[in-house]
Amino acid sequence: MAIDTLDARLIELLAREPRIGVLEASRRLGVARGTAQARLEKLRTRGVIRGFGPEVDPAAIGFPVTAFVTLEITQGVGEQLRVHLRRVPEVLELHTITGQGDLLCRLVARSNEDLQRVIDEVVCFPGIVRSSTVIALSNPVPLRLIPLVRHAAAGSAGGLPGAVVPGDVGTLAPVGEVDAGVGEGDTVPGPAEAEEPDQVGEVGEPGQVGQSRRPQRPLC
């Protein structure tokens, strides 16, 4: 399901400032509060935005070593193995893969010596036939989603002007007062609130709902 430029700008703003309120977000984006609230609810309902929790750096809490373990397993033990791996707190991710091996684990450890303990805990499951481990030396491109969001919005707009560019959200307006937390206590306006005028930053900006209307001048 495609997203448009306004969706992308809202996602980028929330990624930079997760605690920003709907009122302040609407001011930054140049749209009415009802428009921002409706877009936010749509993105949450569709599963595009899955939460507003903090991003935790494993190294900062004492787990600087990252490793990837490929597991080859016997048939019929996949679900039991997934249950086993969920009980190992150092296992951060688990993917089913093609090629050599059946599963790929991303895990962390306190040190290289501690990594051996974690691996032993992972492979102690009897359904594992073979395992191989690689240690990550560095993370030059950390997990990032905003460039993908921008690309998706630009693709849905067909490359027309108005596609999100780096720094777009941050230069919309200076920071003002922050409203209540995003989605907390804010509801999508009903019919009784329909008379609230929509304010947009620019007439005809792609993806913005409720554009301002100007009276047409007579031709003669």
Report on this model:
A hairpin with a 6-residue loop joins strand 2 and strand 3. The chain is elongated, with a radius of gyration of 24 Å. Helix 1 packs antiparallel against helix 6 and helix 2 crosses helix 3. 23% of the residues are buried. The chain folds into 2 domains: 92 residues, no CATH class; 76 residues, Alpha-Beta Plaits. It starts with a helix and ends in a 64-residue tail after the last helix. About 26% of the residues have low confidence. It has 6 helices and 4 strands; from the N terminus they run αααβαββαβα. It has a 4-stranded antiparallel β-sheet. By secondary structure, it is of the alpha+beta class. This is DNA-binding transcriptional regulator, Lrp family. It comes from Streptomyces zhaozhouensis. Keywords: DNA-binding, Transcription, Transcription regulation. InterPro entries: AsnC-type_HTH_dom, Dimeric_a/b-barrel, Tscrpt_reg_AsnC-like, Tscrpt_reg_AsnC/Lrp_C, WH-like_DNA-bd_sf, WH_DNA-bd_sf.
Strand content: 5-15%
Distance between the termini: 46 Å
Shape: elongated
Percent of residues in helical segments? Answer: 25-40%
Q: How much is the radius of gyration in Å?
A: 24 Å
How many helices? The count is 6
Query: How many extended strands?
Result: 4
| Structural classification | alpha+beta
Mean pLDDT: 80
Q: What is the ordering of alpha helices and beta strands?
A: HHHEHEEHEH
- Which strand order does the major sheet show? 2-3-1-4
Overall domain count: 2
Task: List the uncertain runs.
Answer: 159-215
> What summary fits the major beta sheet?
4 strands, antiparallel
